[in-house]
Amino acid sequence: MSLWPAKLLGAGGTVRLPRRAILIYLVAIVGPTLVLLYLGLQSVERQRRAIATLSESNLRLTAERMATELARRPEQLAGLCLRDPDLASLRLPALADDRPELFRPVRRLLQQVKARHPIADLFLVLQDNRIRYPRLSEPPPRQLDEYLAQEKPTARQQFAELFEEAERLELRASRPGDAVTAYRRSAELPVSDTLRAVALARVARSARKANQPHVARQVYVVLRARYADLYDPFHRPFGLIAGLELFDLAGRGRPLSADITALANDLLRGRWELSAEQFDYYRAQIAERVDRPVVEITSAYARELTLTEALQDGLRLQRVPRTGELYPHSSPSGDQPYHAYATLSGSAPEEGHILVLAVDLNWIEQQLLPQVATDLGIDSDRVTLAPARPRGKRVPAATSVATVFPFWELSLTSADDRGQWWGEMPAFVGSTLLILAVLVLGVILLMRDASRQLQVGQLRTDFVSGVSHELKTPLTLIRLYAETLSESPRLADHERREYSDIITRESERLTHLIDRVLEFARIDRGEKQYRLVDGDVAPVVTRTVTAYADFLRRRGYAVEVALPSTLPQVRFDPDAVAAAIVNLMDNAAKYSGSAKFVGVSALVTPGDVVVTVEDRGIGISSAERPSLFGRFYRGAGSLGQGGYGLGLYLVRHIMEAHGGRVEVDSEVGQGSRFRLVFPIRAGAAEPSSIS
Ligand code: ADP
Q1: Is the CB of residue 230 less than 8 Å from the CB of residue 238?
Q2: Handedness of CA 580, 584, 590, 595 (dihedral sign)
Q3: pTM > 0.70
Q4: In this structure, are residues 25 and 476 in contact, taking their beta carbons and an 8 Å threshold?
Q5: What is d(CA 10, CA 454) in angstroms, rounded to the nearest whole number?
Q6: CB of 598 shorter than 6 A to ligand 1
Q7: Rounded to the nearest 5 degrees, what angle is found at the Cα of 281, between the Cα atoms of 276 and 283?
């Protein structure tokens, strides 16, 4: 028999569930909850958007404040620097005398000021809208006459003649050996150091042509040692030229001498007032000789000159700044963006020049930026300064961008707000899922409960109709035979006896049936009470078994009884024990099949008294066993047998009330063995014998 009573199953075999209850549940609970969830989600989303908008606009405001500060402070600091009192004494050489070496005091002064103001990267001096300092290109070559003009008249004449003769020998007559002597003689005249150095350089040049390298070397050594800071007519420092020549004369491939390193240091530290063009040229010369990339041969001075070259094209001021005014000027393009401030310097307009301060962008980025961030209470990790992006390029949503000078983009990210929102997200999703899970669980439980209720209801209905049906048969028989007895006076004696036997048997069945139903009703209502007494259960068992065995034997059953006359003391209700035994014997007979055998025995195990009822009938499958003792359960073999699935339920209830249990062993087709187990009371006596 199926676990689901047939009437519970629909046409397709599926369980018909109480749709109304589920519908009500869905409409009254699930529906509103889902609507509330949806509204909650919407409100959270609105909140998220509001927070995002708010934090983005906050972010933008903060970024703009930072950018403003980053523009304001450099201007302030640049103003301070350009108003440095020392700068008031800045005097440029006259335009007519535009020799780089005359700018040495200017350079020294500007370097002193620069050392006091970390914002200053480079000073430029503009005149007539062109850069005068630092020099970008060298002045035009000087003529020998210019040098001679400063010499004493006697020496000047002699020098001019000798020098001219030497040039003729060297350049036109191609007699460099003689030229060496002639140049040397001119160098020995009492002339200025500059003119002597010019002549000595010619001695060395001719000596090289005359293949006298040792002579050339000697002369270059003198030039490098004694005349290093003088310049030749092409504004080439003798020390620098001689240094390179000495290196070349020593032959390439030899290990680098200390001389070339010293030479490079002189150049990089700005020993000579060179133009930017010359500086680049000599730097390349040294790089080639020491076999290293030019970019590695660098210094602050080298950088200044490079920056000056970069500014050359960009720095075209739209107007001349007024005295005391700071005129900002930026160049966003090129490899080297810069930001500069120009101011008018010098009192009289004709001698006036424009002093330009290029801002140290590294200092701004590395020192000023963190400082501004700290002052504004912003974590400097959130701030980045990068070259400006091309227009229209998308910026991440969590970043706000402002421009600092025209070439920098300041981005400010807000890790906090977003992080906070995203941090709440799992909790929200989690609780939503939890609510949904609870709802689903609710539906499942409701369905299960409803189906169980339905099942029990159905079982009760079946039970009532079954009982009524069972009542009908004996009642009909009783009425039929009673009528026969009263209406047929000439019945034979044995017929009369048989009919009254039937009436007696059927009324017994009726009583038994009603007893069972009443018993069940009492148990079901929780009103069943047992009158437990301590004692020997053997007499009760013997009496019940003997009476029922007679009954069964009369119906053709083989009944085997093995009971001891006494058993150890147990606690029991005699009526209930009798009912349990009758139920088991009744089942044994009912399900004994063709074997028609019922066996009853009792024995004592350590701690228990066990009464066993067995048959050799149809048996019970292991799948059925767990449900066997449930209410209204009727097994596969019960078809065609009277009963309501209450017998074993009552037995279990009785045994539990006794503190004992009912057990079953069974094999399909072989028979079953039910055992009633009563716990022995402490101090009970041993059984004596078996009857
Ligand atoms: P019923 O009134 O149907 O006999 P019970 O509660 O006494 O109800 O038994 C429940 C079911 O257990 C029966 O329908 C039957 O299938 C199975 N059963 C009980 N006793 C036996 C037995 N001795 N042999 C085989 N099956 C049994």
Answers
A1: yes
A2: negative
A3: no
A4: no
A5: 13
A6: no
A7: 90
Q: Does residue 4 carry a pLDDT above 60?
A: no
- Of 653, 675, 671, 649, residue with least CA distance to 662: 675
Rounded CA-CA distance 590/638 in Å is 9
What pLDDT digit, counting tens, does each position of 594-618 carry?
999 999 999 999 999 999 999 999 9
Distance in angstroms (rounded) separating the CA atoms of residues 130 and 569: 129
Q: Decide: 597 in ligand 1 pocket, CB within 6 A.
A: no
Compute the distance from residue 103 Cα to the ligand 1 centre, in Å. 125
Residue 385's φ and ψ, nearest 5 degrees, are -120, 125
Distance 523 CA to ligand 1 centre (A): 19
- Taking only the tens place, the pLDDT of each residue in 629-654 is 988 788 888 877 777 788 899 999 99
Residue 393: other Cβ atoms inside 10 A = 8
The secondary structure element, H or E, covering residue 122 is strand 120-127
Beta pairing, strands 558-562 & 597-605 = parallel
At 404, is the secondary structure helix, strand, or coil?
strand
Give the separation between CA 676 and CA 691, rounded to whole angstroms.
19
Q: pLDDT per residue over 458-496, tens digit each? A: 777 777 777 777 788 788 889 999 998 888 888 888 988
Query: Dihedrals φ, ψ of 5, to 5°?
Result: -60, 145
Look up residue 446 and give its two tokens. 């409701």
Residue 645 alpha carbon to ligand 1 centre in Å:
7
Ligand 1 centroid, distance to 540 Cα (angstroms)? 24
Exposed e or buried b for every residue in 273-299, given b needs 16+ CB within 10 A?
Answer: bbbbebbbebbebbbebeeeeeeebee
pLDDT of 670 reads 94
Phi, psi of 615 (to 5 degrees): -140, 170
Q: pLDDT at residue 430 above 60?
A: yes
* DSSP codes, 212-232: -HHHHHHHHHHHHHHSTT-B-
Residue nearest to ligand 1 atom 19, measured at CA: 587
Using CA atoms, how far apart are residues 111 and 173, in angstroms rounded to an integer?
50
**pLDDT-based confidence at residue 41 (cuts at 50, 70, 90):** confident
Cα–Cα distance measured from residue 384 to residue 406, given in angstroms and rounded to the nearest whole number: 16
Q: How far is CA 45 from CA 15, 40, 41, 196, 589, in A?
A: 43, 9, 6, 89, 74
For the record, the structure tokens of 658 come out as 């006794």
417: Cβ contacts below 8 Å, ≥ 6 apart:
51, 52, 55
Indicate the pLDDT class of residue 244, thresholds 50, 70 and 90.
very high
The residue contributing the CA closest to ligand 1 atom 25 is 619
The angle that helices 193-209 and 238-249 make with each other, rounded to 10 degrees, is: 20
Length of the chain as a residue count: 691
For residue 550, how many other CB atoms are within 10 A of its CB?
A: 11
16 vs 492, which has greater pLDDT? 492
Whether ligand 1 lies within 6 angstroms of the CB of 580 is answered as no
On the question of a cis peptide bond just before residue 134, with omega within 30 degrees of 0, the verdict is yes
Strand partners, 678: 609
Q: Is 620 in the pocket of ligand 1 (CB under 6 A)?
A: yes
Using a 10 angstrom Cβ sphere, with 0-12 exposed, 13-18 middle and 19 or more buried, the burial of residue 126 is buried
Burial class (CB in 10 A: 0-12, 13-18, 19+), 493: exposed
Residue whose entry in the numeric block shows the structure tokens 């010369």: 285
How many angstroms separate the alpha carbon of residue 672 from the centre of ligand 1? 10
Contact 668, 545 (CB under 8 A): no
Amino acid occupying residue 338: Y
pLDDT at 595: 92
Q: Give the pLDDT score at 15.
A: 43
Asked whether 273 and 107 are in contact (CB, 8 A), the reply is yes
DSSP strands (E only) in 350-475: 353-359, 383-387, 399-404, 408-413
Residue 203 · residue 184 · CB < 8 Å: yes
